[in-house]
């Protein structure tokens, strides 16, 4: 039980930086779409000559514009990636996998989506699938130490210690601090 808890904590810690960067999910998605959506209404006084003492609401965005902007946001890979990262952070890896897949379908060159989807599969115990996805991320970004470290952790979960150690060494050589710390800890272990 303790081992599972520690591994779950590891995966949460691994995804915290991703989520931290995506805390402004709606803002990022809207900026990427090229516009900012405001769903607030403004209150304007009635036209002069017809002063009834009442104010009439005036929408800041017309309905057609808001619908189009919402559709544009949903065609944005970053939007789906951020949703996946948020789900993964809170342990909903099945939903995260779904959202990461949407991000991949919109931007097949987004290495982070493959990596994060692989980590989510690793959390679900689907190690072969996890490794394949992280391998794809490494094809797209071969100098990313975090990807080697993440794959090393999945190898450890799968019981493949030799492969895990090789990935930790590669990650450490690429200046991944977590891999460097892990290698120091196992070197000092009795």
Please indicate the percent range of residues in DSSP E strands (runs of 2 or more). Answer: 5-15%
Low-confidence runs of at least 5 consecutive residues: 16-59
* CATH C-level class: Mainly Alpha
Average pLDDT rating: 77
Apparent shape: elongated
- Please tell me how large the radius of gyration is: 23 Å
Share in helix: over 70%
Question: What does this protein look like?
Answer:
The chain is mainly alpha-helical and 190 residues long. It has one domain: Tetratricopeptide repeat domain (Serine Threonine Protein Phosphatase 5, Tetratricopeptide repeat). 70% of the residues lie in helices and 5% in strands. The chain has ten helices and two strands; from the N terminus they run ααββαααααααα. The longest helix has 20 residues. About 23% of the residues have low confidence.
């Amino acid at each position: 039980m303790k081992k599972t808890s520690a591994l779950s904590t590891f995966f949460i810690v691994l995804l915290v930086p991703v989520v931290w960067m995506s805390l402004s999910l709606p803002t990022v998605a809207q900026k990427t779409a090229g516009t900012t959506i405001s769903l607030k209404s403004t209150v304007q006084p009635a036209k002069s000559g017809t002063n009834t003492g009442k104010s009439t609401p005036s929408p800041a965005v017309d309905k057609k514009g808001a619908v189009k902007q919402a559709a544009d946001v949903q065609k944005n890979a970053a939007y789906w990636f951020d949703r996946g990262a948020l789900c993964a952070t809170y342990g909903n890896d099945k939903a995260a996998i779904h959202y990461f897949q949407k991000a991949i379908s919109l931007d097949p060159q987004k290495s982070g989506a493959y990596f994060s989807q692989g980590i989510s599969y690793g959390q679900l115990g689907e190690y072969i699938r996890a490794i394949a996805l992280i391998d794809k991320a490494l094809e797209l970004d071969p100098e990313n130490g975090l990807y080697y470290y993440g794959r090393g952790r999945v190898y450890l979960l799968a019981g493949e210690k030799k492969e895990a150690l090789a990935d930790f060494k590669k990650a450490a050589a690429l200046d991944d601090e977590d891999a460097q710390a892990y290698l120091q800890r196992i070197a000092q272990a009795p």
